[in-house]
Amino acid sequence: MLTILDRYVLRQVSVPLAAGLIIGLLLLLADRMVRLLDTTLGKKSSFLSAFELMAYLVPHYLGTAVPGALFLGLLLGFNKLSKNNELDAMLASGVGLHRLARPVVMLAVLFSLFSLAMFGWLQPYTRYAYRSVLYDIVSIDAFFLAEEGVFMQAGSRTFILDKLDRDTNKFERIFLFDYKGPSGSETMTAERGELIPVPGQTRPVLRLENGTQLTLDRWPTLAPAATPVMPQVGTFESSETPLGKVSKDLFRPRGNDEREMTIVEIYQQMDTPPSGATTNSLRSEFHRRLVNIVAMLLLPFLALPFAVGRARSPRAYRIVIAVVLIVAFNEIIGQGALLTKRGGFSPYLSMWLPTFLLATFSFWRFYKTCFSIESDGMDRVIAPVQELLGSWWKRLSRLWQKQEAAS
Description:
The protein has 407 residues and is an alpha+beta fold. It contains ten helices and six strands; from the N terminus they run αααααββββββααααα. It has helices spanning 4-40, 46-83, 86-92, 97-100, 102-139, 263-268, 279-307, 316-343, 347-371, 377-406, and strands at 152-154, 157-165, 170-179, 185-196, 205-216, 232-242. α5 crosses α7 (279-307) and α8 (316-343) packs antiparallel against α9 (347-371). The chain is elongated, with a radius of gyration of 32 Å. The model is unreliable at 245-250 (pLDDT under 50).
């Protein structure tokens, strides 16, 4: 059962945690949203397709946003308790820092279980769904996804429709330009038309009525002796032409990429990798996921010593050092995963050794902060540096003020 004190500590941590998670997720999704809209723009239900793809990307970006948000929530929440002297009051009443850390350790365990489900199963399935939907959007003929008043590309043809009835596949007023390379081009306009599916075939027929056609058998050149191009212009009451085709190939089965495999599937196929993966890539992906899950449990023990501090000691540098440390750790794990995947390095050296060193450092700092009255060693290093920088800043301010007065 959570006590009133536990709920209060969680409340202080949850506010910056939620804010960091929302802001981080939005920032990560913003850039991808622009690219997805560029891919789906002009297609049928382009915004719905883009948001569907974005939904499949959420678990992928949660893998980055959740650890960062939890770490910042712990830093800012406990820093606020320490800055407002609430932590001193709790310690004076006999409640140690190790007792105050209990609810956030429980929170880290819950997030670690969530990461296990996310890295183990949710991300592989949503990654495959994202690639499958994107493949369908890119592969399908553009005419089936056409919108009114939007230029569309279907193979070598560029066209625009004025009015479109998607239920009957009929439209009014079309402009169609067919680029044939060195063989010239063909341009057609028509009052009305319709798209007629052909049973058993993948090439639908485009029927146009009451139109005009302009044909060039080659492109004109600026050479003085070149023969002028004579365009052929004609009208027609009805014209039928195939319009591209819909791909009949289905998207590949899930599992050719190790990132699309669940953690159980990776373990089972470690020695017999699928065609699109290797044993080293499976080992790298398996251990990288486990390291990310385990690292979630280390965040409270790493963050709390950096968050708390003495009343007269500098605090800002602590948060900066903590953020730099966790970013560096993530970069080391990423590079270690690449070494295992491409160079066959042992994951226990490339990924688990940095994790062990971080865990040792975190537990040692946490123990000293909870059960030692000695001043933090970093304060003794940072304080002189801060005083030196402060004295330089004062000198620069005085020089600037003298120059302002002289001018």
